[in-house]
């Protein structure tokens, strides 16, 4: 069964995403809304990862060797300036999108297994991910024109 | 005669529930001027708080010499507050700006209009060519008239095409608008001041009405002194006069720690749900989102909430019981919520309480999401702040098309690719150098914005061209490249709309001094010199005077919730203010909105598709449509999240800031009124008695308050607030001092951080430390008549003025309230789901 592998991927993606939110928040401390929102979202992603942990442990008994390619790469460092902010937000968007589709995949397996506990975790995780993507899209749309047209 | 410095609210005229509020006409004339000396009385309304009390200006020898309340007006029934009586006209001294100033060799020197406007227009054109409209920002006020906001909005949105327009309203009223958009689909006050006369319970959320809206508070006091008085509940960390009244009325004073409003509100909502006080029929028929709201607040038990907020759980239960069991509840909300953490979320919870009980749109039951300034409503509806004119939705292409047709411009010109830039972001772009032309009109950000050391650095940037348009040489004007002298209230004509949608006409009483011009004339001059044109090559702005601008605005408002088409200057002249919507079918305006429980949430009419209250992420249009709101209100939910700055070892206190009864905005006018200045001449620092004792501070000792951003030094008032909380009044600037220039304004301390939805900065919760710097020589210069009263009242001489106001309690009939329509104009009805 490959579910354990995918739960591993999901868990890893979530911790990577949480780190990335913290990193972008700190790297763009001069954008107060980015700093604060990233911090709030990082905490909530960590909470999702914690909620997933018991399920990971349960299926982890059957865990196969995790293929090397199945993990999310984190951010190296944050960039500076208006365009740098835009690029970093885009990186977050990419990471959040990966968790989004991974929740979908895991959710399908949960349905197949009729695993109610896992499905509850997935439902709440999907809602949180939707919130992250909504905020990132909103903030990217706001920042893009000024960064690409008027910034130095 | 009455001393209205000592007695802020004046003589009582008690009345019973559902009886009209009696008339009392307040009059104050300059020393040595008798009533018989007054040559003319000129109709206006006061602009020194959001109430917008109707008044007449006394004129003699071309000067304003006094003011009198208008008996027949629905807002004030003749009364005026200390600011209206003493501050609205007494600044016409000799320190006004009378000629344009331009910067030469680093110094502002007197100039003329052609030179000044040429400089403005040249820089404007250069940047439009080099960079485009995104280089331009406009930062306005809550002090302009409707005609000026609308004209500026058309110049900015249709002429230049910049999304960077916002105002001081973002510091005061943006959350009111945001909360109404999130819950009801559109800005527009649901309630009416008449609900004060009829309610059984009155809830004031973060609202020190006794000081911020003194005349409205006298209306409340008259209920509290009459038979069948309402129970008052107040949420405020300070022991205000409202809190005293709440306790005396058998209500509750809830004093949560600053930053925890959302926790408290979730607790109140949970109690109402858990006790079965919900009107399920109303909720099912007229709202969406009940299950999510109930699930979100479920963990918020009174004990849990009480611990977060630092209150007694039984107080929370009592407050919830009053809300849940009173037949008619009126709620008001102001800066204690708006300028705090999770501002929009907490304000939406107030709307939720009313929706859950179906208490909206009927006499005595309503919500008043208040404003701080009297024309704040106008900037919101005209589009000079972060909105499109006429409550139009920037994300709805049809709404943008409507504006493009009206203005005869390409829709692509009108910025609508993202939400209009909010004020704090606008300053950030200036800080980063991408906004390089900033036009500031009728406001004083060098004192009013958060984190002043940062604001001063931005204003001083070499690459930022700053235009300041004002009546006085403010702290901000000192940073300008060009200063334009503007006419003030009483010197120009226009209309404005108060917090409960009542529109007043303010006539010109006297000529502006020197070469000062009305803000409208200045904007029209800019448009002409820039040669702004429509799609057919005709001048973009087709009007030349206030009435022309008003007529143009009426067309823009047609069919929208804020419909003005039934109004005219003639109709507003002579009588009383009229609340919009006012159209052909509703010629007397509308007192309340949403009597039928149908809200402007239909996707085709709504002003906004809504946001995630935690992050501010915008709901996509298709997602909004898929929910089929179709006239139902939203019960918006959000968990409590801790504020971005909390007390810690280095900064153990929470500093909260606010307006007090004797001053308005940055004291540009009120600081020049002898009576008001005498009552609160200098800033002070309020400490609780226990905190003062622990710090070794006695009344009047000089203390230093420091945050990670700056410091304030002022005498201490040993007051009545809660422990751990320090209060510093805003907005004391430094135009009137010779001492340490940057240690007076509360905003030296506050943080650059804002609510994710309304983008309103957090002025109410900076972490600070307090140290004593010197012994005092007498009591703090704080009034004894307000929330700033000392802990030991007998130890400080009482604040007094002089007996110079005549209060005429007449038997004249109060004005009749306007009708409440069965169905709100501009709102599409429910659509029955198919199948």
From TrEMBL, chain A:
<protein>
    <recommendedName>
        <fullName>Ferritin-like metal-binding protein YciE</fullName>
    </recommendedName>
</protein>
Automatic annotation (TrEMBL), chain B:
<dbReference type="InterPro" id="IPR006656">
    <property type="entry name" value="Mopterin_OxRdtase"/>
</dbReference>
<keyword id="KW-0004">4Fe-4S</keyword>
<dbReference type="GO" id="GO:0042128">
    <property type="term" value="P:nitrate assimilation"/>
</dbReference>
<dbReference type="InterPro" id="IPR006657">
    <property type="entry name" value="MoPterin_dinucl-bd_dom"/>
</dbReference>
<dbReference type="GO" id="GO:0016491">
    <property type="term" value="F:oxidoreductase activity"/>
</dbReference>
<dbReference type="Pfam" id="PF01568">
    <property type="entry name" value="Molydop_binding"/>
</dbReference>
<keyword id="KW-0560">Oxidoreductase</keyword>
<comment type="similarity">
    <text>Belongs to the prokaryotic molybdopterin-containing oxidoreductase family. NasA/NapA/NarB subfamily.</text>
</comment>
<dbReference type="InterPro" id="IPR009010">
    <property type="entry name" value="Asp_de-COase-like_dom_sf"/>
</dbReference>
<keyword id="KW-0534">Nitrate assimilation</keyword>
<feature type="region of interest" description="Disordered">
    <location>
        <begin position="773"/>
        <end position="835"/>
    </location>
</feature>
<keyword id="KW-0500">Molybdenum</keyword>
<dbReference type="Pfam" id="PF04879">
    <property type="entry name" value="Molybdop_Fe4S4"/>
</dbReference>
<keyword id="KW-0479">Metal-binding</keyword>
<dbReference type="InterPro" id="IPR041957">
    <property type="entry name" value="CT_Nitrate-R-NapA-like"/>
</dbReference>
<dbReference type="GO" id="GO:0051539">
    <property type="term" value="F:4 iron, 4 sulfur cluster binding"/>
</dbReference>
<dbReference type="GO" id="GO:0046872">
    <property type="term" value="F:metal ion binding"/>
</dbReference>
<dbReference type="InterPro" id="IPR006963">
    <property type="entry name" value="Mopterin_OxRdtase_4Fe-4S_dom"/>
</dbReference>
<dbReference type="GO" id="GO:0043546">
    <property type="term" value="F:molybdopterin cofactor binding"/>
</dbReference>
<dbReference type="Pfam" id="PF00384">
    <property type="entry name" value="Molybdopterin"/>
</dbReference>
<feature type="domain" description="4Fe-4S Mo/W bis-MGD-type">
    <location>
        <begin position="39"/>
        <end position="95"/>
    </location>
</feature>
<feature type="compositionally biased region" description="Low complexity">
    <location>
        <begin position="776"/>
        <end position="790"/>
    </location>
</feature>
């Amino acid at each position: 069964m490959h579910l354990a592998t995918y739960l591993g991927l999901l868990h890893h993606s979530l911790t990577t995403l949480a780190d990335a939110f913290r990193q972008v928040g700190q790297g763009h401390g001069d954008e107060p809304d980015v700093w604060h929102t990233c911090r709030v979202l990082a905490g909530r992603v960590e909470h999702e990862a914690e909620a997933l942990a018991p399920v990971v442990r349960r299926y982890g008994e059957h865990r196969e060797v995790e293929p090397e390619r199945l993990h999310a790469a984190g951010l190296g460092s944050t960039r500076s300036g208006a365009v740098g902010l835009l690029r970093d937000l885009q990186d977050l968007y990419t990471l959040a999108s990966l968790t989004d589709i991974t929740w979908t995949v895991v959710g399908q397996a949960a349905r197949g297994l009729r695993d109610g506990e896992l499905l509850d975790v997935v439902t709440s995780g999907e809602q949180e991910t939707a919130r992250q993507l909504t905020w990132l899209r909103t903030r990217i749309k706001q920042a893009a024109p000024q960064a690409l047209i008027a910034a130095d | 005669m009455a001393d209205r410095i000592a007695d802020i609210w004046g003589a009582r005229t008690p009345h019973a529930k559902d009886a009209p509020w009696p008339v009392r006409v307040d009059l104050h004339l300059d020393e040595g001027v008798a009533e018989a000396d007054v040559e003319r009385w000129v109709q206006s309304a006061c602009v020194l708080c959001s109430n917008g009390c109707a008044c007449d200006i006394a004129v003699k020898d071309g000067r304003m010499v006094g003011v009198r309340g208008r008996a027949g007006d629905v807002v004030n029934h003749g009364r005026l507050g200390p600011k209206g009586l003493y501050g609205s006209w007494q600044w016409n001294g000799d320190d006004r700006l009378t000629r344009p100033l331009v910067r030469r060799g680093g110094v502002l020197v007197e100039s003329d209009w052609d030179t000044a406007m040429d400089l403005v227009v040249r820089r404007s054109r250069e940047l439009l060519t080099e960079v485009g409209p995104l280089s331009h920002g406009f930062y306005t006020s809550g002090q302009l008239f409707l005609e000026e906001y609308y004209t500026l909005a058309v110049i900015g949105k249709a002429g230049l095409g910049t999304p960077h327009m916002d105002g001081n309203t973002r510091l005061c009223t943006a959350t009111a608008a945001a909360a109404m958009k999130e819950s009801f689909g559109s800005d527009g006050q649901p309630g009416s001041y008449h609900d004060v006369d009829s309610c059984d319970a009155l809830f004031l959320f973060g609202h020190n009405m006794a000081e911020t809206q003194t005349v409205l508070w006298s209306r409340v006091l008259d209920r509290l002194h009459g038979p069948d008085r309402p129970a008052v509940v107040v949420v405020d960390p300070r022991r205000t006069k409202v809190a005293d009244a709440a306790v005396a009325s058998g209500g509750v004073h809830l004093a949560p720690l600053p930053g925890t409003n959302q926790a408290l509100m979730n607790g109140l909502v949970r109690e109402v749900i858990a006790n079965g006080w919900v009107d399920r029929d109303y909720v099912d028929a007229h709202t969406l989102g009940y299950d999510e709201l109930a699930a979100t607040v479920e963990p918020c038990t009174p004990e849990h909430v009480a611990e977060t907020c630092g209150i007694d759980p039984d107080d929370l239960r009592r407050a919830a019981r009053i809300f849940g069991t009173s037949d008619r509840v009126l709620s008001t909300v102001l800066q204690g919520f708006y300028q705090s953490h999770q501002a929009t979320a907490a304000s939406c919870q107030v709307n939720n309480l009313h929706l859950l009980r179906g208490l909206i749109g009927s006499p005595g039951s309503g919500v008043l999401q208040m404003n701080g300034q009297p024309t704040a409503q106008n900037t919101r509806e005209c589009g000079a702040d972060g909105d499109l004119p006429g409550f139009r939705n920037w994300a709805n292409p049809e709404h943008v098309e409507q504006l493009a047709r009206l203005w005869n411009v390409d829709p692509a010109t009108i910025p609508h690719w993202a939400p209009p830039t909010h004020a704090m972001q606008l300053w950030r772009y200036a800080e980063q150098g991408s906004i390089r032309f900033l036009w500031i009109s009728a406001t004083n950000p060098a004192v009013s914005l958060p984190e002043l050391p940062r604001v001063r650095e931005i204003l001083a940037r070499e690459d930022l061209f700053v235009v300041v348009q004002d009546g006085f040489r403010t702290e901000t004007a000192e940073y300008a490249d060009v200063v334009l002298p503007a006419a003030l209230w009483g010197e120009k004509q226009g209309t404005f709309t108060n917090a409960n949608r009542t529109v007043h006409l303010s006539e010109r009483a006297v000529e502006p001094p020197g070469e000062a011009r009305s803000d409208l004339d200045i904007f029209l001059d800019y448009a002409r010199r820039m040669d702004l044109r429509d799609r057919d090559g005709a001048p973009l702005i087709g009007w030349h005077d206030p009435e022309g601008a008003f007529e143009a605005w009426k067309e823009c408002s047609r069919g929208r919730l804020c419909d003005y088409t039934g109004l005219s200057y003639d109709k507003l002249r002579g009588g009383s203010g009229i609340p919009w919507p006012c159209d052909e079918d509703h010629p007397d305006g509308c007192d309340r909105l949403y009597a039928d429980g149908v809200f402007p949430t239909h996707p085709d009419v709504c002003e906004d598709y809504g946001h995630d209250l935690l992050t501010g992420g915008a709901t996509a249009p298709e997602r909004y449509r898929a929910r089929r709101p179709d006239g139902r209100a939203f019960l918006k939910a959000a968990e409590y999240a801790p504020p971005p700055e909390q007390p810690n070892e280095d900064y153990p206190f929470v500093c909260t800031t606010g307006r007090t009864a004797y001053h308005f905005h940055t004291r540009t006018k009120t600081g020049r009124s002898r009576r008001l200045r005498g009552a609160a001449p200098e800033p002070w620092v309020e400490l609780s008695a226990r905190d003062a004792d622990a710090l070794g501070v006695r009344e009047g000792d000089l203390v230093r308050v420091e945050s990670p951003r700056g410091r304030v030094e002022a005498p201490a008032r040993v007051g009545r607030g809660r422990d751990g909380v320090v209060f510093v009044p805003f907005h004391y600037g430094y135009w009137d001092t010779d001492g340490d220039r940057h240690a007076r304004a509360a905003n030296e301390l506050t943080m650059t951080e804002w609510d994710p939805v309304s983008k309103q900065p957090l002025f109410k919760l900076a972490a600070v430390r307090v140290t004593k710097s010197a012994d005092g020589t007498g009591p703090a210069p704080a009034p004894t008549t307000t929330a700033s009263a000392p802990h030991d009242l007998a130890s400080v001489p009482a604040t007094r003025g002089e007996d110079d106001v005549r209060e005429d309690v007449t038997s004249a009939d109060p004005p009749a309230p306007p009708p409440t329509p069965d169905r709100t104009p501009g709102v599409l009805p429910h659509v029955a789901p198919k199948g």
